[in-house]
Amino acid sequence: MPIIKTAEAFFKAMEIAESDPRDFALGLGGEDIAMDIGAVPSPETLFLPKQYVQIASRAGGLMPLCTIGTVADFQDLEVYCVNAERSRQFCFEGSSCIHSSVVPLLNKDFILTANEVDEARRVVRAYDEAELCGSGAIIVEGKMIDVPVGIRAQPLLDRYAALGRRDQKCLSFLEFGAYGPS
To answer: I want to staple 41 with a disulfide (CB 3.0 to 4.6 A). Which of 11, 34, 123, 140 is the partner?
Structure first.
């Protein structure tokens, strides 16, 4: 997972996102980039660089991992929580952290809820049926669903399925250990 940390790397984010097929995510080191550009690492000053890296991640087929603010404020859990919630609204899929005390906050803010998964399933199902009938836009539960909305729901279901597979692998590892059944 490359992490953009300099102004020079910032302008090469797309190149970095596409540089190695083993990469799965891209992030931005807020404290590092702020130091390099002479800025105070606040949610406001880091918003543009983090959003740019989020877009470069998506364009390069990688998962964007960041919070809009800085990870250095890990003891101010209220601010950290606000930044994590805001980051999810901007389609970041998770974040690294520097202290274990924020892991529960990140899990709470980045985990997919049952309602989100159910809604995505309904949208995908309804939109797939509409496409078969030649319709480009439909209404589902009072909301207009057209091409971008219909397509946007599928990656959420893919992510949910991938997380389920990961959890199964973790369970298998824990049950059988690294060297076979315990």
So the answer is: 34
